[in-house]
Amino acid sequence: MHHLGEFLAGKRGKRRCRFSTLYSGSMASAAFIEPLHVIKFVAQLLRKDVLSKPLSDSGRTKIKKGLRGVKFEVTHRANVITKYRIANLTTQPTKKLMFPVDENATMKSVIEYFQEMYGFTIQHTHLLCLQVGNQKKASYLHMEACKIVEGQRNTKRLNEKQITALLKVTCQRPRDRENDNLKTVQHNAYDQDPYAKKFCINIIKKLASVEARILPAPCLKYHENGKEKDCLPQVGQWNMMNKKVINGMGEQMGLCQLLTQCSIKCCSLVL
Fold it and tell me: What InterPro entries does the record point to (predicted)?
């Protein structure tokens, strides 16, 4: 996992080949929201210490946008883990929040309710609460008691710093990619997996070998009047310096079409 400000994860898959089943170590990467406590998430989002100063209106708007649709779980209930999806943020700080607790509209503060009901003392009363449920019957949960649920993919646009970090992770040299795949297989310990044993599946801890050959580059022939009459491309590239084409012609128009193998066959049948 690589830190971007959001969470990065590598996705692994399997694919069929002609003779057997191969484990495809495709290192497809995507940004995920880190499973942080909401206060820490807000601090990273605003890039400032949120524990010492009250939040501004612009800060509230940014937090609301950043947490929109994010799932979180509460931590103030000992043996109960309940997950919620954020609906809104309160406009007032926690120390000013009151809500009715019975049919007689008896009002109680959020701070008193958390203390009496769960024995949880809210320390930073200047922070806002997360609102869950509908507007008519909303529930308030303080940021101190909330943690973001792990495994949520980030669907929002990344900033330039995050894009640069993501490209740095995904653009690997072949040798580094090979080592990452081997480490992943070693770490997953498929030989100890109970399901793999049950179905008699064995994964070899080395890369599959594929027989292949590299064709030599063709020698290019240029005009006799040029300083260089022949050219052997190096690493798949060459330039026209000191060279002249044998029979240069002007083109009035051109067409470039990228076809799959199936499209080529269909095109051949039409022609």
Answer: ArgoL2 (IPR032472), PAZ_dom (IPR003100), PAZ_dom_sf (IPR036085)
**First vs last C-alpha separation in the chain:** 52
Instruction: Tell me which residue of 142, 138, 129 sits closest to 74, measured CA to CA.
Output: 142
Cα–Cα distance measured from residue 32 to residue 7, given in angstroms and rounded to the nearest whole number: 4
User: Of 205, 184, 76, which is closest to residue 130 (Cα–Cα)?
Assistant: 76
3-state secondary structure of 38: helix
pTM (whole model) above 0.70: no
Q: Which two tokens stand for residue 187?
A: 């770490």
pLDDT digits (tens, 9 = 90+) for 152-162: 888 888 778 88
* Phi, psi dihedral angles at 117 (to 5 degrees): -80, -40
Strands (E), 93-173: 98-100, 107-109, 129-132, 139-142, 146-148
Query: Where in the chain are all domains bearing CATH 2.170.260.10?
Result: 38-148
Inter-residue contact 187 to 179 (CB < 8 Å): no
At 155, list the tokens: 């669907």
Domain 38-148 has CATH 2.170.260.10: yes
Q: According to DSSP H, which parts of 98-222 are helical?
A: 110-118, 160-170, 174-188, 194-198
